[in-house]
Amino acid sequence: MTLHRARLPVLAVLLLVAVPVSASAINAPTGVVLDKSVAGVRLGMTKRAVRTTLGKPDKVERSTTPDNKSFVAYDYRSHHIRVLFFAKPTVVEVITTSPKERLSSGVGVGTTESRLLGAIPHLRRQTFDGLSYLHRPHGTKGNFTLFGIRHGRVVQIDVGAE
Fold it and tell me: Quick one: which of 29, 19, 57, 41 has its CA closest to 157?
């Protein structure tokens, strides 16, 4: 009986070593916080902090916008998340098309436009590149949240800094 109890801590340590768990699986909170974060990736985070939260990106893209601004994008295909860094080495925008990432109210990708409008009052509409977006007129400290709408449903959520 004493021998059996002595082996339990050793067995527990062996199980922890034998079953690898990534830091991203432990640290990656889900959800969208208006004007602040998506899936635990907050505006202003460093590249290192993003990698700690979501792991190694599936793809890293370096490019320029039509108005000639350089950017780096981390694509996380399995999470349906894209993280953008412009001149600063910190997050300036996080885009998700994942139905798993939702606001505390339950609103997220797949939500109907009417439910979105009921959950977040005073949204305004704009259209870019054929996609309709709903947004709040005043974000937090110049930050914004855009809800991309197609066929009456949310298809993407963008949280960014102006």
Answer: 41
Whether 145 contacts 136, CB under 8 Å: yes
Q: What domain range is 66 assigned to? A: 21-161
pLDDT in tens, the chain (162 residues): 444 444 333 323 333 333 333 444 444 557 999 999 999 999 999 999 999 999 999 999 999 988 998 999 999 999 999 999 987 789 999 999 999 999 999 999 999 999 999 999 899 999 988 889 999 877 777 899 999 999 999 999 999 997
Q: What CATH number is associated with residue 154?
A: 3.40.33.10
Q: What is the DSSP letter of 151?
A: T
For residue 12, being part of any structural domain is answered with no
DSSP string, 7-46: HHHHHHHHHHHHS---HHHHH----EETTTEETTEETT-B
